[in-house]
Amino acid sequence: MATMFAKIAEDKKAEEIVILDVRDLTFIADFFVICSGFNSRQLQSIADEVELKMAGYGVHRNGIEGYSEAKWILIDYGDVVLHLFCKEMRHFYDLELLWGDAPKIPWKTNL
Known about the structure:
5-stranded mixed beta sheet, Beta Polymerase, domain 2, alpha+beta, globular
């Protein structure tokens, strides 16, 4: 599911997409998917597309935060939490540093 989120975000032109494996660091999730967008409309578009595609598989989110303001949208799918940031908020919260012990998971396939 984390890889699917990353690919959906990439298709919507998100930047700096990272998947962190946090299984050994916290009980709240197994993976964090983190990415940046240019503006609130793009972040909302990514969130909408993730929800639409996952609903097609019968998978629904547990919760969502920050959608209206869309500077940092957090979507909780249980084992995977998607963090969609505007660039300023991503730099401010710096989740990659906060969860620096988490291994990064490669998700792109090189053709």
